[in-house]
Every structure is written in C-alpha cells, then in structure tokens.
Amino acid sequence: MKSVSVQELQAWKKAEKKYLLLDVREASERERFGIGGRHLPLGELINQAASLPREIPIVLYCEKGIRSQIALQRLEALGFDKLFNLEGGMKAWKNQIADNRE
C-alpha cells in the first residue's frame, strides 16, 4: 500500500501535481473540517468507483487513515493502481498545520 505524508501532499499541491484528493469520511465529519477534494463516503465508494479517474493518482483520506486504507484496498481490488493513503489522515494534517504555525 502506497502512502503520502502531509508534507509530501503539501509539496504536491505547491508543485501543482495533478491528482484527485478523495475524502471518504461521512458528511458530518467533512462539515467540521476538511482539506477539500471530492467527497465520496466509504459506504458509497464501490457504487461510485466507475466515476473515479484511473489515469491520475488518487489520494484518499479520512480522520485517522484507517477508513482510507480500507477504501484503497477496495479500489485496488477493482484494478485501480495509482492510489495513495494520506498517512495519519486529518489528525496528522491538523497536527502538521499546527506545528507549522508555531
């Protein structure tokens, strides 16, 4: 399973690398805090997988990185191969951003 750290994802953004950011959390979680991207809750992932691009990397994220790992495995089983899990999820993102502001 490939992963990307918060720092690497920030570098991808800065470099304007083409990728899809995919939030697999529930809508209520997304309303509280998010970093953007497409919203596709884990429970709807398989039914909507055909709408996802296969030609660019997809970075999946959730609160702690567990659901996004499950989502990644499900997409791999469908033949997707350019998948990355955001290490530590939103928890790591919040910690990294807070560390950078100090």
How would you describe this structure in keywords?
single chain, 102 residues, Oxidized Rhodanese, domain 1, 5 strands, 43% helix, 16% strand, globular
Structural class: alpha/beta
List the total number of helices.
Answer: 5
Unreliable parts? none
Could you give the order of the helices and strands? EHEHEHEHEH
Global geometry: globular
If classified by CATH, what would the architecture be? 3-Layer(aba) Sandwich
Main sheet: strand order: 1-5-4-2-3
Q: Determine and state the CATH class.
A: Alpha Beta
User: What is the CATH third-level topology name?
Assistant: Oxidized Rhodanese, domain 1
Which bin fits the share of residues in helices? 40-55%
The strand count comes to 5
Largest sheet: 5 strands, parallel
Radius of gyration, CA atoms, in whole angstroms: 13 Å
Number of domains: 1
Strand content: 15-25%
Give the terminus-to-terminus CA distance.
Answer: 32 Å
Mean pLDDT: 92
Give me the CATH superfamily. Rhodanese-like domain
